[in-house]
Amino acid sequence: MRIIGCDYHPWFQQIAFVDTETGEQQERRLQHPEEAEKFYRELAAQGKRVGVGMEASGHARWFERLLAELQFELWIGDAAEIRTKRVRKQKTDRQDAQLILSLLLENRFPKIWVPSSENRDLRQLLWHRHRMVQARTRVMNQLQAVALNEGLRCKKRLWREAGREQLEAFPLAPWASRLPSIPI
Prior knowledge:
Blueprint: E1 2-8, E2 12-19, E3 25-31, H1 34-46, E4 50-55, H2 61-69, E5 73-77, H3 79-84, H4 93-105, H5 117-149, H6 161-169, H7 174-177
Parallel strand pairs: 1-4, 4-5
Antiparallel strand pairs: 1-2, 2-3
């Protein structure tokens, strides 16, 4: 089995790895995504089991998908806990990768639970729906304020057909009739 300690950054990763059968240790710096993908696909072609350990990061979704596709094990560790296990205060990417590798080899790697991709998709859908409901509520509150400012007080009846017709009949103020120009 090949065990890899990975210090992951959005544009590159520093890895330290060991082949448990031969004891061979190496280090590499892989640029994303081309060089890293080529390296891991070559490992998969060799047919060896591979385990990759890395700190929790919010920008590694493509990397996680790649490892899942190649059927490699991925262990995500608690970054704060890993930081406490560092002996030296000086920190480099090489030392971080070596530390993660040594924690993996010594069975002291602080694994955290990571939701599955299906669970993440569901969470993303729920978050999106939540944001849409918030946006709808803000718009409804603003329209309710417009109705109150025009002397129309009908609470929930504002959302029925008759209330909506009254709301649409209000003349818009000059500021409300212009479309904003937002630079992109």
